[in-house]
Each structure stands twice: as C-alpha cells, then as structure tokens.
Design goal:
By secondary structure, the chain is an all-beta fold. It has no helices and seven strands. The mean pLDDT is 86.
Length: 104
Amino acid sequence: QDRLIVEPGTTITIVNDDVADHSVVSGKENYRSRNTSEFTSTFTPDGRIVTESIPPGGSITITFDEMGFYRLYDPDYPWMKIIAYVFPPVPDSLIIKDYGNPKN
C-alpha cells in the first residue's frame, strides 16, 4: 500500500519481501525538476522514524505515537514510499451547527 490511515498509538509491521535490504525513515518530501517534463523527489529526514536495515524476509514494527502525516521512505530507494495519516477516529455523523427544524 502507498497510504495508511490509522489512529495514534497504532503499530504496523513492515515485511521485506524483496531480495535487497531496506530501511524506513520518515521525512519531508522535496520536489526538484530535472527538466520541464520530468520530476524526481528527494527527502529530508525529520527524525521521527528511523529503522535499522531490514534484511530480505525480515520485518520491523513501527508505532505512530503522534498525530499528523508521516512520509515514510527508503533512503536507498526513495521511490518506495508510504504516507501514513495518523488521526483519531471521526464520528460517523458530524453536526457543525444545528439550526433546529428549518422550514425549507
């Protein structure tokens, strides 16, 4: 998956089913243009999540303690990325303002 929506305190497990080692780091995504028709992305680590190397067949758990957006990527393979949206659950129905019984 490239997107997750979870509540604060949620722990996920990332399994490396590739043939190469991988790691996971959180950071800010920066865009730069090589030319007018092609864009590449780079990241600036923010230090919230940094894992050790995950060998092929290995796994690691990550807990999202704080609310917000987490952009997770592999520094060696920056096209491998996930965005985690970490927010408390939203009620099924949200009333912003109750105007009583409108006539229309």
